[in-house]
Amino acid sequence: xxxxxxxxxxxxxxxxxxxxxxxxxxxxxxxxxxxxxxxxxxxxxxxxxxxxxxxxxxxxxxxxxxxxxxxxxxxxxxxxxxxxxxxxxxxxxxxxxxxxxxxxxxxxxxxxxxxxxxxxxxxxxxxxxxxxxxxxxxxxxxxxxxxxxxxxxxxxxxxxxxxxxxxxxxxxxxxxxxxxxxxxxxxxxxxxxxxxxxxxxxxxxxxxxxxxxxxxxxxxxxxxxxxxxxxxxxxxxxxxxxxxxxxxxxxxxxxxxxxxxxxxxxxxxxxxxxxxxxxxxxxxxxx
Length: 287
Description:
Elements: H1 2-11, H2 14-29, H3 38-62, H4 64-68, H5 77-80, H6 87-107, H7 110-131, H8 138-142, H9 144-157, H10 163-186, H11 188-194, H12 199-202, H13 205-224, H14 233-255, H15 259-286
Helix pairs in contact: 2-3, 2-9, 2-15, 3-6, 3-7, 3-9, 6-7, 7-9, 9-10, 10-13, 10-15, 13-14, 14-15
């Protein structure tokens, strides 16, 4: 049983899923208006997590040939044979997504449910199937998946979206490329061997570093703007600290584009997002 749970955790990419779920709660937190009750919030959070898991599992199934050619991913369950791809997997993925969307609709509203669906669709179909093997813009468009999670949380409070959650959704959109490009730079040889045209594979070190900085600076700047739309000093402090560190490591990567500076920038991106989400949730708690 323990091994089964571990495999499902890996296949559903639940570590990413929990971050996406918290992003939805952050979107809800920054939206003005009466928040839903505890049960609707819990159901929406679970719906976002399940939809993310469905998209993550679909990604594992579709990319098992790529995963087999990459050192970082060749131990994944569908590559090693610990799990076998059958029609039941596709049925389970579709059913999980349907349950997630239906749960979001019943607990909140149809607009929030639509955003839950779109987040999974963008990651599972647009990013994984249509773009990843074809263009370096794959992760740029794929960044919409996280944005839709924020919008789902916001729509649960008010289907007509306010400026603060829209800004947070744009921040999530801009955050994904520098976050993932930093990791792709670290594993550039893996992606090149698998034939995946991630930006660090198809362009120079300096161009990659500058593209990362060109995303990081505006996303950090935009992350501070919600203080003009109702968020308080606590949010500002968390966003400013995380953002300053992310800009610092991005500048370091531009000055010295190499593996260790890229890895530090990847970790800084995680810290920045974590502090941003915590700032949103704490700001709501103290209001």
